[in-house]
Amino acid sequence: MTEPSVLTASVRPGVPGHVALVLDGNRRWAAQRGLGVDEGHRYGIGKIPDVLQWCEEEEGVAMVTQWILSVRNLQRSPQELAGLYRSFTSLCERLAAAQRWRVRVIGDLELLPTPVAEAFEDVQRRTEQVEGMAANIAVAYDGRREIVSAARSLAQKYRDRWPEEPAEDLSWWEGEFASHLGTAGLADPDLVIRTSGEQRLSGYLTWQTAQSELYFCERLWPDFAREDLREALHSYASRQRRLGL
């Protein structure tokens, strides 16, 4: 029997066990400085290991998920995507070489050019035995697409046979459905941080964020600082989580 998804990864009261981030604002950051969009993406993607380190040093944070590319972003110009892909490849090599975090990739890698997809697969393979903080990367990701994919997978699984568990037990079905998501086995986010001042999730972890606390930071992602992370964590600690109760 599939267990329901874990609501929280917290190991210390007042501290989010799982922090999820929407990395927004690279292009605006570059435009404000008269730089090319490639430079904005390069600087923004290069900040990811720094943020992982900051989260790692906050006692109680056990998992971080960062959204670096949506499926909609794939509609951008070939030139911009080429620059992004170079930054992604560099990021994968840095994370693999660090041997500090256990990397898991969430998203449709088949939508990426083969060398880029292989870079993400390689970093997963090279860090799967690392006993450090879990570092998830959401790339070519879309929450609705993930849910539709999970529903199709579940339908295929039970196409020819009905489960022995009672169909009326929706809690069982919830856990079974979650086991077909890209985040299967991972705790749901306790806290979601989005930079750049935009106050929406844009399809980020649509299923998983049902009970997450949200924090919107005005700063553009390349300018995101350790103080901003601490403010988000302080905001989280000041809230009384009810988890829908």
Summarize the structure.
This protein is 40% helix and 14% strand. The protein is of the alpha/beta class and 245 residues long.
Description:
With 245 residues, the chain is α/β, with parallel strands linked by helices. The chain has a domain at 18-142 and 188-231: Decaprenyl diphosphate synthase-like (Undecaprenyl pyrophosphate synthetase, 3-Layer(aba) Sandwich), CATH 3.40.1180. It has 8 helices and 6 strands; from the N terminus they run E-H-H-H-E-H-E-H-E-H-H-E-E-H. It has helices at 26-32, 37-46, 48-56, 78-98, 114-127, 143-157, 170-178, 226-237; strands at 18-22, 63-70, 102-106, 134-141, 191-194, 213-216. Strands 3-4-2-1-5-6 form a 6-stranded parallel sheet, sandwiched between helices. Strand 3 (102-106), helix 5 (114-127) and strand 4 (134-141) form a beta-alpha-beta unit. The longest helix is centred in the middle third of the chain and has 21 residues, at 78-98. The model is unreliable at 1-8 (pLDDT under 50).
- Provide the CATH top-level class of the domain at 18-142 and 188-231: Alpha Beta
The biggest sheet amounts to: 6 strands, parallel
Structural class: alpha/beta
How many helices does DSSP assign?
8
Our Rg estimate from Cα atoms comes to 18 Å
Following the backbone from N to C, one meets helices and strands in this order, namely: EHHHEHEHEHHEEH
Q: How far from one another are the termini?
A: 25 Å
Spatial order of the strands forming the largest sheet: 3-4-2-1-5-6
Q: Which percent range fits the helix content? A: 25-40%
Approximate strand percentage: 5-15%
Function: Catalyzes the condensation of isopentenyl diphosphate (IPP) with allylic pyrophosphates generating different type of terpenoids.
Cofactor: Mg(2+)
EC number: 2.5.1.-
Binding site for substrate: 25-29, 41, 76, 194, 200-202
